[in-house]
Amino acid sequence: MHLRNLNLLQLEFAQAGMNADVNAWRQAEQQLSLQDQINCVLALAHEPEPKPVIQRLIVAKRLSNRHKLARQ
Predict the structure, then answer these.
(1) How far is residue 45's CA from residue 35's CA, in Å, rounded to a whole number?
(2) Which SS3 state, helix, strand or coil, does residue 16 take?
(3) What is the DSSP letter of 2?
(4) Strand, coil or helix: what is 7?
(5) Which among 19, 38, 17, 39 has a CA at the least distance from the CA of 28?
(6) Cα–Cα distances in Å, from 40 out to 51, 67, 71?
(7) What is the tens place of the pLDDT at every residue in 1-54?
């Protein structure tokens, strides 16, 4: 599992955990299955410097979602 394979919610869950943002982490945790949470941890373990990668992926996925909505 790699960070680029995570969906936006999984990335936000991972980011909240790294930033010790308990409220955001709990909110995302409630929406993710246990397997999705495990996949986040596994993806983090494969990345030596996950924080900047996660930030870039979150921005990219949010932009992608906006473009999808604009096309509808």
Answers:
(1) 15
(2) helix
(3) -
(4) coil
(5) 17
(6) 13, 25, 30
(7) 899 999 999 999 999 999 999 999 999 999 999 999 999 999 999 999 999 999
Q: Residue type at 14?
A: A
For residue 67, pLDDT over 90 is answered with: no
Cβ neighbourhood burial of 14 (10 Å; 0-12, 13-18, 19+) = buried
Could you tell me if 1 and 43 are in contact, meaning their C-beta atoms sit under 8 angstroms apart? yes
Does the structure show a pLDDT above 80 at 62?
A: yes
Which tokens sit at 17? 């955990």
Model-level pTM greater than 0.90?
Answer: no
Phi, psi (deg, nearest 5) at residue 7: -85, 175
Residues 2 and 43 sit within 8 Å (Cβ to Cβ): yes
